[in-house]
Amino acid sequence: MKSTTLIATTAVLAAVASTTLLAADRDTARNARATGYDHGMQVVANHAAEGSRAFGWRYFSDPKTRRAVVISPQGDYYLSRGKGLRWVAGMPAAA
Questions:
Q1: Can you tell me the distance from the alpha carbon of 38 to that of 53, in angstroms, rounded to the nearest whole number?
Q2: For the whole model, what pTM was predicted?
Q3: In Å, what is the CA distance from 1 to each residue of 6, 9, 14, 37, 45?
Q4: pLDDT tens digits in sequence order for the chain, 95 residues long
């Protein structure tokens, strides 16, 4: 009987702790959307020379959450969550 109580108590504590972590992550995302600025992102320097293919690209990274954003010179946004870049938004095509 004691082992069942111990397992149940451990499960409840784990559930409470994980709920708190998820709520904190949700609050961070909500604040970033409300202010339009993600304070965890850091600028990654791009020293590409004018005329090279990498010139004009902007890079941002948040090592804590393992995210990165790349913005092309044309305004296309790419997001990486550790599994390569994925296009997420861009400038609307001219009509």
A1: 27
A2: 0.54
A3: 9, 13, 20, 52, 60
A4: 455 665 555 555 455 444 444 444 555 566 555 666 667 788 999 999 999 998 999 999 988 888 899 999 988 999 998 888 888 887 765 54
Q: What share of the chain is helix, strand, coil (3-state, %, to 5)?
A: 35, 25, 40
Both 31 and 76 in a single domain? no
Domain count, the chain: 2
Same domain, 48 and 86: yes
11 plus 35 within the same structural domain: yes
Domain containing residue 1? 1-39
